[in-house]
Specification:
The structure holds two protein chains of two kinds.
Chain A: E1 2-9, E2 14-21, E3 24-28, H1 35-43, E4 50-55, E5 58-59, E6 70-73, H2 84-94, H3 101-110, H4 124-137, E7 142-146, H5 155-169, E8 172-177, E9 188-193, E10 196-200
Helix pairs in contact in A: 2-4
Chain B: H1 3-27, H2 38-71, H3 75-86, H4 89-99, H5 105-112, H6 121-146, H7 150-157, H8 162-170, H9 175-190, H10 194-199, H11 214-224, H12 227-252
Classes of the chains: A alpha/beta, B mainly alpha.
Amino acid sequence: MIEARVKKKFEAFQLDANISGEKFICLTGGNGAGKTTLLSIIAGTIAPDEGEIKLNSKIITNFPIEKRNVVLVTPESCIPHLDVETHLIWGAKIKKLEIKKENVERVKSQLKIHFGGKVSSLSLGMRGRVALATALICRPELILVDEAFSHLDDREDFIRSYRELAVEAGIDVIFATQNPEEAEFADYHYNMVGGKAISQEKG
Amino acid sequence: MNSLKVISFFSLALLIIPVLLLLFEGFGPLRNPIGYSTVVGRSIVLSLFSSALAAGICVVLFTPLAYYFARNRNQIGETLADIPAVIPHPIVGVALLVLASPLTPFGRFLESVHLGLFDTIQGLVVALTIVSAPIYVKSIQPFFQSMSKSYENFALGLGASRFKTFVSVVVPNSGRSILSASLISMSRALSEFGSIAIVAYYVLQSPFYGVSPASVLIFQYYSYYGLSAAVSASAVMILVSIALMVALRFVNR
């Protein structure tokens, strides 16, 4: 369960967002609506001016990025010099998790990672798959997906599989997209307009 | 031809004409066998060896500092790191001699373990490291500043510590830039005179017993044998420096 109530003032823009939810949460909105800022604040890469972020009833507002147990995945997120296999288990190894080969294989097959090689040599879409899978395998409490689904050719199938794997592992996901249709996969949907998050009816 | 091009070529000519002239004279009209002797050869080897070692130390000790400055702007720290580059270099030499003298506890410690800096290879390398480190930091810092934070933030999010992220994510993806900056700092070290003329006018350690660094040797030749010996030795040294610059171009391609 993630609850974020944060404010951040920039020169030309003010974020004042209040969201809460679990499992699969979708943030929609146009350019400059504040999606990336909100995700960055939750990930810890931007500090809010005021407010509180609560993850599974633990207040993480002032935690450094590496202590939050939150992974932010953007289209640029990856560790370029690693090969695919090493990349997938990199986070899990850092956290000293027990890595079950069959789990990794299952994630790979569900997310259609049927390729290898150095991550830097992959296409944007392939890189996105690897980064999103890496985030899942290291089992954080929350994964933030900032437009990282948008470079995938089989977006709908991918989001469906990703949701299934995340829910099964008990990982909440917030994904930001400019495509309102993708909200159909979500359990919670917020539309962002001018820095405010407006809860949308699911149904 | 536009005037900008004319000005640019003129200023470039100002830079290279003295060097080209020295090459021409050193291997031509002013050639002097003293300039091509094994003494010059050994001296250039000492300079290359100590400069490469200083560049290596810069990589190990100052890459983290440059990265830190790139990610946490620190005006005071950055100004302090520039000091060895902006003070006259003989001052660095004098400062090192004071530091390593029995006047300081550090100097007494160095003496007790026979690691004095005066006329030693370690003294030479320490002086070269100090004068070339600011250049190294200045060369690599803009690269880190321009490097996307996405890689680091992703690694941190996966639970890696700041140090682990630096060592396992930032450094492996900066190889070429680190090599390029180390070659720049090595060429800076190779051209150093002021500090090493004081700390290590010659080295009194094997395998370089009695050998002076190349820049110091050229100064000695000029003082003892006159212009022609200095010109010939300089021409040889210029060739070595050009080779280093070509290597740098190759790395930066």
